[in-house]
Design a protein that fits this description.
It is built from one helix and seven strands, in the order ββαβββββ. The protein is mainly β.
C-alpha cells in the first residue's frame, strides 16, 4: 500500500496516509460522522467501536464503525451530513 493516497469523503477527495482510520479522514474533511435525531453533529467518542457514534457509509456499507476501519486507496465514505 502506498504511503499516501486519496479517498473520497462525501464526494470530496481527501489525501490520507497509510494507517489513517476512516474516522480521522472524516474529521480531516471537516465533516461530522452523522447527525443525531436532535440535529447535533456527532463524531467518534470512544475510538474503540463500542459507542457507535462514528457510524458512516463506507464503500456502500451502512452503519460502518469508521473508527475501526483503516483507509484503503479508492475508499468512498459517506456521512449523513
Amino acid at each position: 500500500m502506498p504511503d499516501e493516497f486519496t479517498i473520497k469523503v462525501n464526494g470530496a477527495p481527501v489525501a490520507v496516509g497509510a494507517g489513517t482510520t476512516a474516522a480521522v479522514a472524516i474529521a480531516m474533511a471537516g465533516q461530522p460522522c452523522r447527525t443525531s435525531v436532535a440535529g447535533e453533529p456527532r463524531g467518534p467518542l470512544c475510538g474503540m467501536g463500542i459507542c457507535f457514534e462514528c457510524r458512516a457509509i463506507v464503500n456502500g456499507r451502512p452503519h460502518s464503525r469508521s473508527c475501526q476501519l483503516l483507509c484503503e486507496p479508492g475508499m468512498d465514505i459517506r456521512t449523513d451530513e
